[in-house]
Amino acid sequence: MSLSAEEGLSLYKKATEKNFEEKAWERWLVDYSKMTKENFKSFAQYFKEIKQPPKSVDNRSDEEIINDAEEILKSMKRSE
């Protein structure tokens, strides 16, 4: 069996995506047993949500972020 590198990578990508979907299905089945009418999610909704990268939350105030940025700028000037 001889495949080009591009075809091989394409097959590998498809296999990893399928594996991820199978693991998500198994996880959904566990979560499904705990779902109620109020919090039910179809597998399609569930899968779409877990495919999204997690969003990082920064709980600092604007003032804290500005102060941190100023400290970084000061430390960069010292190192020059």
Explain what this protein looks like in three dimensions.
With 80 residues, the protein is an all-alpha fold. The protein has helices at 5-32, 43-51, 62-78. 68% of the residues lie in helices and 0% in strands. The model has no long low-confidence stretch (mean pLDDT 91). It has three helices and no strands. The longest helix has 28 residues, at 5-32. It has one domain.
Percent of residues in beta strands?
under 5%
Radius of gyration over all CA atoms, rounded: 23 Å
Shape: flat
Order of helices and strands: HHH
The count of domains is 1
List the helices and strands and how they pair.
Layout: H1 5-32, H2 43-51, H3 62-78
Helix pairs in contact: 1-2
